[in-house]
Design goal:
heterodimer, A: 486 residues, mainly alpha, two-stranded antiparallel ribbon, 19 helices, 3% strand, B: 499 residues, two-stranded antiparallel sheet, 20 helices
Chain lengths: 486, 499
């Protein structure tokens, strides 16, 4: 049962797709049930991956190998280490949450919708487990197609077409440079196998070029500040579940790529460009935090705060020490929980009133107490309150960055203050105050399903905040191994 | 090297071609007699003749695949039968069979009741098979003319349509011009080397001492370039592409499908044989021309397509772009390059077959008018989600988004270019493919997101077309799971070519 655990994880959503394809589209309930059941099975199964994972070694585990294009020396090699195992868990977890949260809010083309999400679920596992640079690129890019449809078809307004276009073109242009760099690697080393490439050292000049090309792709995906224009658009126009998966996992593909490929393959390039990354991240943290203050769209606020948090992640990664990298991985995970939860909360409001403008919402606390509890909890988690998941991550990151660059850390700390400012102000504006009855009248508190979606996220957030050791334990050896390579 | 004319071996090796040529005669006689028979009431034979033609080609395909004699140069060194030519012929026969079946629906709707075009297509296929097999400049020229004449006629198949007549005339004039260039190139080569045989030409060029006589080698280079230009005309590569959009648009769609798929395979294989084998000793002069044409084709294909609003014109420009990528592989001048080119050809054929299986079959219900403009596709997702999804798969594959098959074909071409250190070419290719994604995803946008103007009640696809469409789409979408068999088969036949 546990022999080919990764292949099964990839195949289970495929079976779900086949099941959905064979159900007639009028039987919406069956389709939803199939989608949710398969995603839940995949999640439970991925827990075994975590349980069976041996955290005492930095080697890749659950290795699977198959011939792919032998004439070009390309092979399909999948396996996980202490870093990718978390992202696999996170993706199976969030995909099932996404399917559960779209239960009532998606009312057209349900069949195609769930197919899109299940296919993303299986492609994401490929992305986080593949050990070949070219094959990584293949799956890194392929997420574009289902996401393009999710934004374009199930998005909420007419501006969604522009958003879908922007999302597609931005990512494509960035990643095309990475493709060229991969060709160069292939030409230099004769292989794109990640484990073999670890033993190949490129000349410093080449490393700088290659690092930049990879960075172009990852920076768009993360997104770093000058390349972040697509993100607020895509978030605002996407349906709730689309935003959740975008903020929860798709952004992490960029940072995961930075850790896995940029750091390990081009250590000299990484050291050379650390100041650039610091600059971009610091600008991201401060600028987007301030931008957040003047947004009037609920989703845009969370979107910009995502950019700020990803700025912390990149600072942590390029601090190039143990605390920094472990902290940044923790932030990625906690951001996966917290920002997803905030998008879900906004989705709850949007489902009821079909607007996301802040000015229509005030005094919700009086009529939706349960909702207020959740929203307040996640806002506080978002600002990095001690005891919540973001705190442990941000603390570790800043500790790591402090030892390598004090000024950067100092400015980044401003971001924490600003994040408190926008989070609390947002809470103030929509939760408290006078109820605006003439705008929105039909107040209904959260349903059981919505609570069921948010509760696991509360548990994860608290757990990671109170006892992060269990996460750190698993990633510890792998991260130290990366540092040894550098 | 010179072998005697061996009656048994040569005739057996050429059996598929001979079979087709014989059976075509019988088909003509059969069709002419029955279609003019007053006793039977002048029956419309198009469907009947199409199926008979499919059977002829299918049997020829079987003969071709099970050819016992491989690696023979026959008929006084005029034709060669090796692994490579057998592979290419199989692809040609298979894609023609599919095109014929796909077009049946179209001829029914358009009242295109002339069985002659089936026969002309089969004749053109015989010509193409000879082109692929040719091992002598004379044989090559004659075979190219055989296929070209058939194609001039079927381009103007719809006699009463101005567009179609114009297409036929344009195609004829420009095609004749390019044939003239080709023949002039051949005569120059013959005049300065004294031979037309590939093997001898190869020996001449591989041992040619450039310092011996500069005038002679200039003339030879001129001859080679004339031949190359002739080929590029046939391939509709920029800057010799001007006929393509008009011919694509004017010709009936069934014929357009044939033009877009089959001749390109034949001419490309000829280019590969000529320029990677015969003229390989003169790599430098022709490589520069090919690189230039490749870049120009990619640019024209991309930027030309951006402003098109008719489906067939857009496909013509996208075809020009694809030719640019294929030539990138050839211009690399390495085994990987040829391999990448043929990989590209096969994926391109699959994508084009899938596109035309949609275009030939969908119609508005009621007046049964065909879809002509891109805007006719808007809202396809609402009326027929499956069809829209397959179309989207094809479009994404054409613009090279992984994990669809189109990505791999482009990747191999780029890898080949980077391996020969042609970085500029690779960067141009990557950039144009990004720009090209604009118009491909515009089609996706039209189908999926523009829901205001819905196509009301589309006709359902015919069974055959939907069968081919689903096969092609499943192939494109799941190719990444197991690309090994196709890659290995291709690799083996290409290696034989270069040995």
């Amino acid at each position: 049962m546990f022999n080919f655990i990764l292949s099964w994880l990839i195949l289970i959503p495929f079976f779900g797709i086949l099941l959905i394809l064979s159900t007639p589209k009028t039987q919406v309930e069956t389709i939803k049930f199939c989608a949710f059941a398969t995603s839940l099975v995949a999640f439970v199964y991925s827990l075994f991956l975590f349980i069976l994972f041996d955290s005492s070694t930095s080697k890749f585990q659950f290795l699977e190998y198959s011939e792919w294009l032998p004439s070009l020396n390309l092979h399909l090699f999948i396996g996980v280490d202490g870093i990718s195992v978390f992202f696999i868990l996170l993706s199976t977890f969030l995909v099932s949450l996404c399917i559960l949260t779209s239960w009532d809010s998606v009312v057209k083309y349900e069949k195609e919708y769930y197919i899109c999400f299940l296919s993303m679920g299986s492609l994401l596992i490929f992305v986080f487990s593949v050990l070949d640079v070219l094959v990584f690129y293949v799956f890194f890019e392929s997420i574009l197609i289902p996401m393009f449809f999710v934004i374009g078809i199930w998005g909420s307004r007419t501006r969604k077409i522009k958003a879908a276009y922007q999302f597609f073109i931005y990512t494509l242009v960035g990643s095309v440079l990475m493709l060229l760099a991969i060709f160069l690697i292939y030409f230099e080393a004769g292989t794109t196998d990640f484990q073999l490439l670890l033993n190949v050292s490129f000349s410093e000049k080449k490393q700088i070029v290659l690092w930049l090309a990879f960075f172009a792709s990852f920076a768009v995906k993360v997104p770093m500040v000058p390349f972040h224009i697509w993100l607020p658009e895509a978030h605002v126009e996407a349906p709730t579940a689309g935003s959740v998966i975008l903020a929860g996992i798709l952004l992490k593909m960029g940072t995961y790529g930075l850790i896995r490929f940029s750091l390990c393959l081009f250590p000299d390039g990484s050291v050379f460009f650390t100041p650039l990354v610091y600059l971009m991240s610091v600008v991201a943290v401060v600028y987007t935090s301030i931008t957040t203050l003047r947004q009037i769209d609920l989703k845009k606020i969370i979107a910009y705060s995502s950019v700020a948090h990803m700025g912390f992640v990149t600072i942590g990664i390029f601090s190039l020490n143990l605390q920094g990298i472990e902290g940044s991985i923790l932030i990625m995970l906690s951001h996966g929980f917290v920002s997803s939860a905030l998008f879900l909360c906004i989705g709850v409001l949007y489902d009821r009133h079909h607007t996301r403008m802040i000015k229509y919402y005030t005094g919700i606390a009086q009529v939706m107490p349960v909702y207020t509890l959740f929203f307040l909890f996640f806002s506080i988690a978002n600002l990095g309150f001690p005891g919540m998941s973001s705190f442990s991550g941000e603390f570790l990151t800043l500790v790591g960055a402090f030892s390598s660059n004090t000024l950067t850390t100092f400015i980044a700390c401003l971001g924490m203050i600003l994040s408190a400012a926008y989070s609390l102000w947002l809470c103030n504006r929509i939760l408290f105050g006078q109820l605006k009855i003439h705008y929105v009248s039909n107040y209904l508190d959260m349903t059981k399903r919505e609570v069921a979606v948010l509760l696991p996220l509360v548990v994860c957030t608290l757990w990671m905040g109170v006892y992060p050791e269990i996460f750190l334990d698993v990633m510890h050896v792998s991260v130290s191994n990366i540092l040894e390579i550098i | 090297m010179f072998m005697e004319f061996n009656f048994n071996v040569d005739w057996i090796a050429a059996l598929p071609e001979i079979f087709i040529l014989f059976l075509v005669n019988f088909l003509i006689v059969y069709a002419v007699i029955y279609s003019t028979s007053p006793h039977l009431g002048y029956p419309i034979l198009i469907r009947n003749v199409t199926w008979l033609g499919v059977q002829v080609l299918g049997l020829a395909l079987m003969l071709n695949v099970s050819n016992p004699i491989i690696g023979v140069i026959g008929f006084n060194n005029l034709l060669i039968f090796d692994n490579f030519s057998i592979l290419v012929k199989s692809v040609i026969l298979l894609s023609t069979i599919i095109t014929l079946i796909l077009a049946m629906d179209y001829s029914k709707f358009e009242n295109l009741n002339c069985f002659e075009y089936v026969i002309l297509m089969i004749l053109a296929v015989a010509g193409m098979m000879l082109v692929v097999s040719s091992y002598d400049l004379i044989a090559m020229y004659l075979a190219i003319e055989l296929q070209s004449f058939c194609m001039y006629i079927i381009a103007s198949l719809k006699r009463e349509s101005e567009f179609s007549t114009e297409a036929g005339l344009k195609y004829f004039i420009l095609g004749a011009f390019s044939s003239g260039l080709l023949l002039f190139g051949c005569s120059l080569l013959y005049g300065f080397t004294g031979t037309t045989n590939y093997q001898q030409l190869f020996q001449v060029f591989s041992s040619v001492d450039k310092a011996v006589d500069i005038e002679i080698s200039n003339a030879i280079i001129l001859g080679v370039l004339f031949i190359l230009v002739g080929m590029l005309f046939k391939l509709s590569a920029a800057p010799f592409h001007f006929w393509a959009p008009d011919v694509y648009e004017g010709a009936p769609t069934s014929v357009t499908a044939f033009f877009a798929i089959v001749p390109k395979i034949a001419v490309l294989s000829l280019v590969v044989r000529l320029f990677s084998f015969v003229f390989y000793g003169l790599l430098l002069p022709w490589q520069e021309v090919l690189i230039l044409c490749s870049i120009l084709s990619m640019l024209v294909g991309t930027f030309g397509a951006l402003s098109q609003n008719k489906i067939k014109r857009l496909l013509a420009y996208s075809g020009i772009g694809h030719i640019g990528y294929m030539m990138m592989g050839i211009s690399a001048g390495s085994i990987e390059g040829i391999y990448a080119t043929f990989f590209y050809v096969i994926i391109y054929v699959v994508m084009t077959v899938a596109t035309f299986s949609i275009l030939l079959s969908i119609r508005k219900q009621g007046n049964l008018s065909k879809l002509k403009y891109l805007s006719d596709l808007s809202g396809l997702f609402l009326s027929n989600p499956q069809l829209a999804l397959s179309f989207a798969v094809i479009m994404f594959s054409m613009c090279g988004i992984p994990p669809l098959a189109g990505f791999f074909s482009k990747t191999f071409v780029f890898i080949a270019a980077v391996n020969m250190e042609m970085y500029f070419l690779a960067i141009m290719g990557v950039m144009t493919s990004v720009v090209a994604s604009f118009y491909y995803i515009r089609i996706v946008k039209l189908m999926f997101f523009d829901s205001k103007t819905q196509i009301d009640n589309l006709n359902v696809l015919s069974k055959e077309n939907s069968l081919f469409l689903s096969f092609c789409c499943i192939f494109l979408a799941t190719f990444f799971l197991w690309p090994t068999p196709l890659a290995l088969t291709l690799h083996n036949s290409i290696v034989y070519l270069c040995l």
